[in-house]
Amino acid sequence: MKLKTSLAVLLALSVSAGMAQDKFEISGKLPSAGKDKKVILSYVNSAGKSVKDSALLKNGTFSISGTTAFANRAYLELQPLKRDTTKRWPKPDFQEFYLEKGKYAVKGADSMSTASISGTKSQAEYLQYQQEIGVPHKEYQKLTARFMKARSAKDSVEMKKISAEAKPVMARMEANLDSFIFSHPDSYVALDAVNDNKTMVIDPATFDRYYTPFSKRIMASFSGKKLTAKYEKAKQIAIGKTVDFTQTDDKGQEFKLSSLRGKYVLVDFWASWCVPCRAENPNLLKAYKQFKDKNFEIVGVSLDETKAAWLNAVKYDGMPWIQVSDLKGFKSDIAVKYGITAIPQNFLVNPEGVIIAKDLRGEDVDKKLASFIK
Known about the structure:
Helix content is about 40%, strand content about 25%.
């Protein structure tokens, strides 16, 4: 019994030793923040779990220490000890920063959101990233506000004008984003920028340029492992891959994709609440009518969570093709397996079940199908 206990202790110690224990120390000064307040730190601990810690603000100063691993986004928030009941939704006073091993200095007056946070390489890179992306992002936010106002007024001329103005701003945002990513291959901030902005729909044919430059140090992090997992899932539905899945159809019967071997099949991921998906349905219907008698079928995979919403949308949009769903939303077995985190998405498989095209939209559906189905 003692031997087993000793072995268990040794095993626990070895696991703990193999886990990064990066100590951080945060010292802050907010001399005009007032009394009866506390600072909340939300961060990722050394085990990769999201946790919170707090410290009282005493004479305008505070300090918090702990352990983390790698560098991850964290948040410092200044809160009153007692909630102001006169305000139903008090505006939070917080700031995002990058927390890693090292010492941090927080310097401000009466607010956390306007304080400066400095101290480590990753935080310096984050401030640089904010500066490079910030200018076009603010321009885009102003254009978005104008667009929403024009939309409320149903001013189609103004909406069209704003959309034209937004294109070069969006292009500049994308160029600045790529510039930062490619110039920082050993940066946790750049890694998160890829996770946040480049992985909604991963095309393995073009994604390598965002994935391979990162150093081994960066890819060993929690965010690095997350990116690798996403990429590996996406590779399962790359062009040239054979796919199959089983799902329940709208009649409650089991459907297997491979039951359609011998046909060209467009597998379309959609949902009743997805406006862009619904906008594509007329294009799919046109293609279905044109090719349904020429060895072609469509399988709609709904990421709805309620059966009524799903089936009502099928009926309203007049979709006569095969419909399947397990009503789990983005936690659908198929979505989880293939890493589907954004819709609409689709892929075309040939009669052998091999993917030959992806993400067909608008007139491209007809053109692509016509190039295969004679």
